Amino acid sequence: MTVVTKEHADGDARTSDPAPRQLIVTLFGLYGRAEKNWLSVASLVRLMAELGVDGPAVRSSISRLKRREILLSSRHGTAAGYSMSPLLLDVLAEGDARIFGRRRATVDDGWLLVVFSVPESERENRHALRTVLTRLGFGTAAPGVWIAPGNVEREVRETLERRQLHGYVDIFSGNHVAFGDLRSKVRDWWDLDELTALYAEFIDAYRPILAECSKGGFTPREAFAHYVAMLTMWRRLPYRDPGLPLDLLPEGWNSVVAEELFRELNTALSGHAREHALATIHG
Fold first, then answer.
1. Partners of 141 in the beta sheet?
2. CA 225 to CA 35: how far, in whole Å?
């Protein structure tokens, strides 16, 4: 079984300068789905050139994505191109809700606990399960016990079923009722220092872009370049942070500023970016 994960699609999620394959996945997610799950080689090369990536790097990255069964070769008439695998389409559909519509949890949502047991003979599925839970933003409460805010239950159930991993898992929901400070435990379960640094990196990179928008904005071509890079950088964060309750996070935690910055940039840039991308695809 091949499992497409965020790491498969994105490469190293800690790298601030997006790799070409990360940008390619963003382009397909933003514009390839609207084009009946297909982009021509020529249009992809043109779009990537406007993101500062040359043709050889594009082709090398596409080859890697094909080997991982993320992109599939496909022709429309005489034009060569690529479509997204069903697994990548699933990942992108899941990502839409996380990236554009995530609701931050509250303490009243409780917690979701996942425990699993996978036979030694099925180590590939054990690795796949751990990867999926990590991608869904789970922390580790104890060895073999994974924890997430209770409001992600439906997403977790559907994802595990779609990946055919549900047979190895038990899921429990409940509240933390005794022993220990919950704020301290959240810091143990998730690496909040790393998340803080990732949010700060995003704020530092894109607060100046929002300031430029307020001064008169960008041309569609400029909006496209900024928007694709911005979204590629942002989309790792809703997976690293599953929407932890603010009451349990450090006071003034910078995720609030980063989330508002993302929403404002999405509103300011997405329309012009799409206009330019479609003109390039159909040009």
1. none
2. 19
